[in-house]
Design brief:
Blueprint (H helix, E strand, L loop, with lengths): L18 E10 L25 E7 L4 H5 L4 H10 L4 H5 L2 E10 L5 H16 L3 E4 L4 E4 H5 L14 E4 L9 E6 L8 E6 L4 H17 L8 E4 L3 E7 L15 E6 L1
């Protein structure tokens, strides 16, 4: 008998009324589901996974060339070049699948497990590369197919931490998350000098994990780290001194006091 898949929990869950969403884009050179129309999800996801919220679609290049190319060109292609061994299969792909799950106020993270289970099955069937659209991360087909459904939740596999190379005058190097919408939470951004990027990224990783678990940050809070740094939580509103890093989510700005 196959062991049941344990839900990824949110032990500190508090209701926020926000919607959580995940979108994965999986590329292939043919419709890999033709030979495998039954996904067989019952053995690959927790019993409580919101399967009714799953939106799985195939997009053919002949029908949507600009939409498909939008996922594998520009900045996303630059990331793919860093994270994938070979872009030839990605370039040759004649179709892709969009895997979307959206849920309101999730008390656990089974919606993420559901989306990844579908992507894993597609990779096992032949997709060559999959993009986590909100986190802007790529996984090759073999790497995705090897993921165990019993793996524990890991924040670094769900959220990206980005340190912008160009500083903004009066703000510093923007350091921020991408992907917190997957938990129905705001992304986090702050500005620091170059020599504080690494420890600031560790702080944001810690806070991202807390938010994923269900903790809440709101403007007006002050956070103390290492006994020496205090960060004030404020609303992120790009302006002439606060850079716009093109987040596909709202965000909280952490200001050092």
């Amino acid at each position: 008998m196959t062991a049941p898949i344990a839900p990824w929990p949110r032990p500190a869950f508090r209701p926020t009324g926000r919607r959580a969403a995940i979108t994965l884009i999986a590329f292939a050179d043919e419709d890999v589901l033709k030979a495998r129309p039954d996904l067989g999800l019952h053995d690959a996801v927790p019993k409580t996974a919101p399967t009714a919220a799953l939106d799985l679609r195939i997009h053919h290049y002949a029908d949507s060339p600009s939409w498909i190319d939008g996922w594998r060109t520009g900045a996303l292609r630059n990331i793919a070049a860093q994270q994938l061994d070979n872009l030839d299969l990605l370039d040759a792909a004649s179709c892709c699948y969009s895997i979307t799950v959206e849920v309101d106020n999730p008390t656990d993270l089974t919606h993420l497990q559901l989306a990844w289970a579908v992507a894993t099955m597609l990779a096992d069937a032949g997709t060559c590369a999959t993009l986590d659209a909100y986190a802007c991360n790529w996984l090759s087909g073999p790497a995705l197919a090897s993921l165990s459904p019993h793996r524990p939740f890991t924040i670094s596999q769900e959220v990206s931490l980005i340190a912008e190379t160009e500083p903004t005058p009066g703000f510093g190097h923007p350091v921020h998350t991408r992907g917190m919408i997957k938990f129905g939470q705001p992304d986090l951004i702050t500005g620091v000098p170059a020599d504080r990027i690494q420890d600031t990224a560790q702080i944001l990783n810690h806070l991202a994990r807390m938010l994923a678990e269900g903790h809440i940050l709101v403007p007006g809070q002050q956070l103390r780290f290492d006994g020496s740094r205090t960060l004030a939580v404020t609303t992120y509103a790009p302006d002439t001194t606060t850079p716009d890093v093109n987040l596909n989510n709202d965000a909280l700005l952490l200001v050092e006091l």
